[in-house]
Design goal:
121 residues; alpha+beta; Aspartate Aminotransferase, domain 1; 6-stranded antiparallel sheet; 4 helices; globular; MmcQ-like protein; YjbR/MT2646/Rv2570-like
């Protein structure tokens, strides 16, 4: 998966913005101001940090040890770095992105969740 495919999928989700808060090399995707994905613009191969349920994170790292690693520069209990070198199928990567987005969305305040629900309605 290339960076444009990753970006297009992330920004297609409801309430998502993209920012460069850590400088020009790290693209950050947020839902209602909360981070759910980060990617280095110069990473080869492309990789993305995604939030993950702690139990599932460990299982994924064991099953895909070469492509799913503890989150680089993140809380390793809650974040994975996913290497997008073509080994993982795009549909599976989309599921991981959705999981991250949904975890962050579930942690929003009730007010933020309502604001997200009201977007584009």
């Amino acid at each position: 998966m290339d960076i444009e495919t990753l970006r297009n999928y992330c920004i297609s989700k409801k309430g998502v913005t993209e920012e460069l808060p850590f400088g020009p090399d790290t693209l950050v995707f947020k839902v209602m101001g909360k981070v759910f994905a980060l990617t280095g613009l110069d990473s080869v191969p492309v990789s993305v940090n995604l939030k993950c349920d702690p139990g599932k994170a460990v299982e994924l790292r064991e099953e895909y040890e070469a492509n799913i690693l503890p989150g680089y520069h993140m809380n390793k209990k809650h974040w994975n770095t996913v290497i997008l070198d073509g080994y993982l199928k795009p549909g599976f990567v989309y599921e991981l992105i959705d999981h991250s987005y949904n975890l962050v969305k579930a942690g929003l305040t009730k007010k933020q969740q309502q604001e997200l629900k009201d977007l584009n309605e």
